[in-house]
Write a structure and sequence with these properties.
Layout lengths: L2 E6 L5 H14 L12 E5 L15 E8 L4 H19 L6 E8 L3 E2 L2 E2 L1
Parallel strand pairs: 1-2, 3-4
Antiparallel strand pairs: 1-3, 5-6
Amino acid sequence: MPFINSKVSVTLGDQQEAELKTRLGQAISLIPGKSESWLMTGFEDNYHLYFRGDNSEPSAFIEVKVFGKENPAAFDAMTAEITKIFHEVLGIAPDHIYIKYEAVTNWGWNGSNF
């Protein structure tokens, strides 16, 4: 039950969004027990992000929420892959990307909680 939400300061074209969705779907398997078959993604483009008090460079804030316990080693691998994806697809410099992880113990789906 992972969810990856992306807020980017650039405009996303349909092709870019599709590529991000596909590549994030592949990357989620870096976290043991997670797969694209349960992944939900969200994209917010043209988001007003200021980094170091400036918004002249493309930036991204990405949230990764997973059901279960934290896995720092898997999160490290995921950070490297997410950074690579957003740099290659959108041209956002790695030093302008923040990624937040959250392990969630209560997750609802289909009218009940896991």
